[in-house]
Amino acid sequence: MYSYWTVYIYNEISDPISVHVQSGDDDLGNRTLALKENENWSFCEAITLKTLYYAHFYWNSKTTFFDVFDNDSSNRYCTPWKYKVNRRCVWLVREDGFYLGQDVTPFPIGWTKLHDW
Hints:
This protein has 117 residues and is mainly beta. It has 1 helix and 9 strands, in the order ββββββαβββ.
């Protein structure tokens, strides 16, 4: 069964950040996010379960780059599979790093820190 996903990236930093999201097939371009703004996109996961999206993040003089969607992290940290239910991965960008969860919940409940700046 295929999964239909929506991935969100929320900025929780008072300064604007820039995000550039890509996959092997799609370039979603650059987006500047002010505090509390988000970037999101939806897709149907490949039958091979090899769907991969990655992103470059820029905040003042800091930059980083990592995968924002892959089969391993989506199954571990994002919404579990349920018949006919769309799944979500939600990234929270904070001054101390990057957190992944199933939904927007009050910090830190439901969030796992996966990356530093």
